[in-house]
Amino acid sequence: MKQHELNSPLDIKKSRKRVGRGDASGSGTYSGRGIKGQNSRSGGGVRPNFEGGQLPKSKSMPKLRGFKNRWKKNYYLVNVRDLQSIKSLKSLDDSQLINPELMLNVGLLNDLDYPVKILGDGNIDVSMNVEAHRFSSSAIKKIESAGGKVTEIL
C-alpha cells in the first residue's frame, strides 16, 4: 500500500453546508444565523471567556502571587541535641563518625534525597566527629567546644 492509495472511511469526510443559496435550499435568507444581533454579523460572536458581562470565573479565582525560586536548596535540618541522642542511643565510641547514613539508620532522616544541615539548637557534652553538608556557626562552636570535630561534605 502506498500513501497515495490511502482512503479515509466514507463517514469521516463530510462536505460542508453551503448556506445562503436561496430559500429552497433550506438555509437561505438568514443562512442559519437568525435575524439580528451580534452573532448574525460577520466577525460577530463573543470571546471564549465572555460570560455576558458578568465577572468571568478566571478573574474571580484567587491567584498565586510571587514566584518559585528554581535555585533554592532544601536541606534536612538536624539539631545538635539530636546528635546527642544518637550518641546516647548507639553508645558510640569517640572515633565513630556521625554522618547522614548513620542518621538515616537511626531514624533522624527519612531518605538521603537532600543534603543535611546541622543546627545549633540544644546542648552537647560529649565529643563526636560529625560529617554533614552544612553547619551553622553555633553548631560548629558547640561541637568543637565539646572536643568534637566537624567535617563538611562537598
What does this protein look like?
The chain has 154 residues and is α/β, with parallel strands linked by helices. The chain has 2 domains: 15-60, no CATH class; 76-152, Ribosomal Protein L15, Chain: K, domain 2. It is built from 4 helices and 6 strands, in the order H-E-H-E-H-E-E-E-H-E. It has a 3-stranded parallel beta sheet with strand order 1-3-5. The protein is elongated. The mean pLDDT is 89.
Name the features.
single chain, 154 residues, alpha/beta, Ribosomal Protein L15, Chain: K, domain 2, 2 domains, three-stranded parallel β-sheet, elongated
The major beta sheet can be summarized as: 3 strands, parallel
How many beta-strand runs?
6
H/E order of the elements?
A: HEHEHEEEHE
DSSP helix fraction: 10-25%
Low-confidence stretches at least 5 residues in length (pLDDT < 50)? none
What is the CATH C-level name of the largest domain? Alpha Beta
The chain-level structural class is alpha/beta
Beta-strand proportion: 5-15%
The tally of domains stands at 2
Just name the CATH architecture of the largest domain.
Ribosomal Protein L15, Chain: K, domain 2
Q: Give me the CATH fold name of the largest domain.
A: Ribosomal Protein L15, Chain: K, domain 2
Oligomeric state of the chains in view: single chain
Number of helices: 4
Radius of gyration: 36 Å
Please tell me what the overall shape is: elongated
Order of strands in the sheet with most strands: 1-3-5
| Average pLDDT taken over every residue | 89
C-alpha termini separation: 61 Å
